[in-house]
Request: fold
Amino acid sequence: MRPINLLPPELEQKKQARRRVAGLIGLGIAFLALLALLTYWQNSKIQVVKDDLARQEQTNRETEQKLNALAGAQDLRTQYEGGVARVEAVLATDVPWAKLFNDLARVIPDRVWLTSFTGSVQPDTNDPAVVGQVQVSATAFDYPDASAWLRVVDSDIWPAVARGWVTSAQATNIGDNPVVDFQSSASLTTASISSRVENRIPTVPE
Reply:
């Protein structure tokens, strides 16, 4: 049997209108919930970015503090390097004369003896291998003995001195014994320079 609706049609229309309004309200609530969810998610991303920025700023401050603390160390490094440069300049032509005389006593020919020795440091601008000059006055028993002195000066057994020559020589006597007095000059080479510049300067790590 077909149901018969005894209610007026206006009432049914109001029900349908209320259902549409309820549906729109539900959609509005769902939209607002979705909007709130999106806002929360976006705010979370913004907060992550802010946290990263805060950490980076803190790192930058710490780095700046370390750099400021190292400024004094850089000044010390500059002073150290300046001191090293001055020491190297002073010791660049440092000749250990005591060692030079000791080597001289070891290599001088048996029939030659020195009466004077003069040495000076004066680098040769035209020859970087020459750092100075030496002049000696000596006596030998004969001319070949004087030549033996030159052979010593120009040999490898005494590399600190080279390019020797006799500037003058004359025969004379000591008592009844004939001798030869001679003067000789030679060049001081870079082999005569001491190694104190390497041993005296401490190594400071960077």
